[in-house]
Amino acid sequence: MNTSDNHDEQSSAVKLASGSYDLIQKDLGIADELDFDPGEDPFGQLHAFLTPRIQHLLDHDFGYLINAMYRIDISEEVLKEILEHSKPGQIASDIAERVIAREKMKMETRMMYSGNKKM
Question: Residue 15 contacts by C-beta under 8 Å, 6 or more apart in sequence?
C-alpha cells in the first residue's frame, strides 16, 4: 500500500469516526469537543473519550444513560448483559464499545446511501 492509499484510509477512518462522534454527541448530550489526532486510531481516541463520560452517567445519572441507550438503539437486553457480565471496572468501556459500534454502523449506512461510498 502506498502512502497516498494509507492517507486516504486514515482520512476515511477519521471521517467515519467524526460522524459517529457527532451522533454520539447528540444522543448522549455531550458538549465536549473531540479533536482527532491524525496519527492515532480515531476509534481508539473515540473510545478513550467516551468511556469516562459513560462512567459518569453510570455513577450519577443512570436513568439518562438508559434513555440514551434507547435513542442509540442499544437494546435493554444488551445493556443488561454488559451490566451483569462485565467486570465492574470494565462496564463503562464495554458500553462505550457498543455505542461506538452502533453509531459507526449508522454512519456507514448513511454514507452508503448518501452516495459517498468511499470510506
Answer: 119
For the segment 74-112, what is each residue's pLDDT rounded down to a tens digit? 999 999 999 999 999 999 999 999 999 999 999 999 888
* Torsional class of 91: left (φ above 0), alpha (ψ -120 to 50), beta (otherwise): alpha
pTM value is 0.86
Determine contact, residues 45/34, Cβ cutoff 8 Å: yes
Using alpha carbons, select from 68, 21, 28, 23 the residue that is nearest to residue 45.
Answer: 21
